[in-house]
Amino acid sequence: MLYDNNIPVRYPKGAFAMGTVYSFTGASILASIIFSLLLFLSIDEDPIMQILFGGLAVIFELGKFFAWYEFGERRARRNYAGAASAFAFYAVLAAISIGGSVGGINSATNQAQSHVNVQQSKVNNYDMQIAAIERQIELNNSAAEKYIEMERIATGVARIQRENDELREQQLKLAAERDSLPVVNQGSVIGLIDSLAQSLKIQTETAQLSLVIFLSVLLDFFAAFFVGLIGEELRFRNQFRRVGPITIDTYAENEVKEPELLTNQQHDTSAENTETVEKEPVVPKEPEKPKSLYEQAIDALSTNQVNCTKRAVTKYLKTSSDEVDDIFSRFMEEGIVSKKPNNHYQWHGVPDTAEA
């Protein structure tokens, strides 16, 4: 059985994969826009202002994802300065978007929590009324005991018993009304917030804010990931159309080959060079005359190799001090060196017309 190992390393994604990517991207962007709209639309109740703020939220969201797409394009072109500017623009818009999403999600959770709180407040109101009636009954019982001690059972105790019976009936009626209230189903988000608050031992408001921020950042990163994935896939498709499939053999062909030895050409070139050298007449160069100590001293002082002192020149020339004295005397006569009041020598340089 024969196998074709020369298969492309990567193909463009199929229609199903790209459809899934576009669906996830559109859904995440739409969710981010909706949550931002929840915040921006609540800024003002005027319809015109709501339209303006809503359009601003949509512009921020779409501009944010386009900035992320442009960041990937510039980075692929190795335009790092442009990529940095695009990323900075994306970071600003992402901060605004995350803030809008936090406000929108927080508003939605607050509405769900407020509905639960309204129903709970009704139940608490009935409980308070029932508890107040129970306290009144206890007070009546205490008064009845006083009447019994005063031997006024016929007048006081009978009246108190009638009042207690009426209070019991009222209490039972309130309990029946309380129990007839519709049961409020706690949403999954509210239940999650309560569970987080209990497990982390924090307040419910803190748990709600932490969960909202986490969901907002996760939604933004989720959408940015798929936008970047679309951009990378489009760039790869363009390269695939131009270059063709990248196979294993393509990698082998692109490997750097070892340079071949050009033996014949090298021999011919060396022979020609040898003949050229043989034909050219050799002109013997005259040996350079060694410089005198005077010339060496001038060169050293002119190039600032030594300081203008007899000790430095003596050390540099490695000669006797008498010869250095003669050299400095000649310098003084020619005006190359002058003597300062502090007996230090000052180098003036050799004039262009001076001859050694």
UniProtKB/TrEMBL annotation:
Domain of life per record: Bacteria
Coiled coil (residue ranges): 150-180
Keywords: Coiled coil, Membrane, Transmembrane, Transmembrane helix
Bilayer-crossing regions: 21-42, 48-68, 80-100, 209-231
Feature: compositional bias, Basic and acidic residues: 276-289
Residue numbers spanned by region Disordered: 263-289
Polar residues bias spans: 263-274
Name the UniProt record assigns to this protein: Preprotein translocase subunit SecY
